[in-house]
Specification:
about 120 residues; 7-stranded mixed beta sheet; 4-stranded antiparallel beta sheet; 11 strands; about 0% helix
């Protein structure tokens, strides 16, 4: 079992930046691929970014490409999502998740955090 705890979500203005954190306080997750997903009200959960074990292989959703950056620190058991140039359409609950297989499909992820709310006002 991998416990994931997200933090950093809050209300921001459009154009501002925000960094989300996801930590696994009780277990190392260096063996896991880490993904970020988000879910807006009335919409399905969607892929945002994925980061391989070492951080060498990273992929982003087209909607966040060039604005979001994912990184991980396997010593601190943490993965981060740096978000810049935020838009109102980025408003959602953001989740981090862990899987063994490199994937953008949320169904392939075994462990999920509780989510953190990001709200971007116009």
């Amino acid at each position: 079992q991998v416990q994931l705890v997200e933090s950093g979500g809050r209300l921001v203005q459009a154009g501002e930046s925000l960094r989300l954190s996801c930590e696994a306080p009780r277990r190392t997750f260096s063996r896991y691929v880490m993904g970020w997903f988000r879910q807006a009200p009335g919409k399905e959960r969607e892929f945002v970014a994925v980061c391989s074990y070492s951080g060498s292989f990273i992929r982003y959703a087209d909607s966040v490409m060039g604005r979001f950056t994912v990184s991980r620190d396997n010593v601190k058991n943490a993965v981060y999502l740096q978000m810049s140039s935020l838009k109102p359409e980025d408003t959602a609950v953001y989740y981090c998740a862990a899987t063994i297989d490199y994937s953008t499909d949320p169904a392939r992820y075994d462990y999920w955090g509780q989510g953190t709310q990001v709200t971007v006002s116009s």
